[in-house]
Amino acid sequence: MLMTVQDFEAAARTRLDPVHADFIAGGAADEITVRANEEAFRRLRLLPRVLRGSTARTPEITLLGSRARTPVLLSPTAFHKLVCSEGELATARAAAAAGAIMIVSMASTVAVEAIARAARDAGADGDPAPLWFQLYLQPDLEFTEALVRRATAAGCAALVVTVDSPVRGAHERDLRNGFLDLPDGLRCEHMADPRQDGRVRPIAMSPEISWEHLDWLRGITSLPILLKGVLHPEDARLAVRHGADGLVLSNHGGRQLDTVPATIELLPEMYAAVGGRVPIVLDGGVRRGTDVVKALALGASAVGIGRPVMWALAEGGEKGVRRLLELLREEFDQALALCGARGVTDLGPDLVRAPAWGPAPPFPGAEAVRPDGAVS
Ligand SMILES: Cc1cc2nc3c(=O)[nH]c(=O)nc-3n(C[C@H](O)[C@H](O)[C@H](O)COP(=O)(O)O)c2cc1C
Ligand SMILES: CC(C)CC(=O)C(=O)O
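That is the input. Now the predicted structure with flavin mononucleotide docked in place:
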């Protein structure tokens, strides 16, 4: 039975080509950060309130003008057709049904126009949350601008600019497996260049991208811009100064620079750096409803999930992703209730305890008791 996010991974692995499973699960180099993301959530403890009459609970959020029925977003992930023949269409339908914001990857295997249509159709009698679009700024600004116009025309409500990839991370599993290219028949639809008869360009990960490019982007679009992959508090301040409307606190699921801290560990510092001026979405290692509560309590406005979506899509296509989102909604709701909270705004840092590094401090008063039990 699929009861947990972990169950989806196990089920997906029985269906997937192990090379593709490695592409999803893997990270950079020694995968220290991949593991750190999940471990850091496990180390944090929740300290619930009681007797608060939290019967009517709502998981709803409004983020940069986008209304959603859950604080769990679908982080951008590439190549959905690698694991499901319908690809991003299936993901978008499931997200629309759940009222979850889906961030469409620039490296999607279905074009944003078709994804948007699928989301609208699936959400017809519900209330689909809008799509956002993820972008790697290309040094060819004319091409980048055309893509921004496409995403905007398709109805995307925000742009998520990934800034942690001046070069690609060392995906050693992929290198060992010889997984260097998409299989025949699949392509990154957004990289087809109309100026070159639809020839598909490689996605440029470019070290030349700088704050000036962000200023340029700010000048050509009125959509909210979020920067994904800012980890240093000084960069968070710079981002705000350069007009970013939000941050996605992300280490790319441990797929770029290995040994960077877990995102949840950085959250308090990043929250303090932006001082509430812009919202922070956190991704990396979110696997349980309690993880969602911990992130929101420490200052995130929402969380994103990457690998769980790929596992669910591989396991059961649209239905799989629907079930995954439902599962996280149920777990989140239960965790809210058990914390004595009615919604996102009831969550604060007082509900989270981080274990002390090293020996625990003595209980108040305990210092007066000597090891032999005698009281001094
Ligand atoms: C298979 C895969 C593909 C990804 N593709 C993209 C992408 O195209 N653009 C991007 O900004 N991040 C990409 N990411 C990173 C995710 O957006 C996200 O930051 C990360 O997966 C979150 O960690 P989690 O997998 O532990 O939930 C990808 C991650 C995975 C696992
Ligand atoms: C196509 C890639 C750039 C997708 C990516 O960001 C990743 O695999 O982490």
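The chain has twelve helices and 14 strands.
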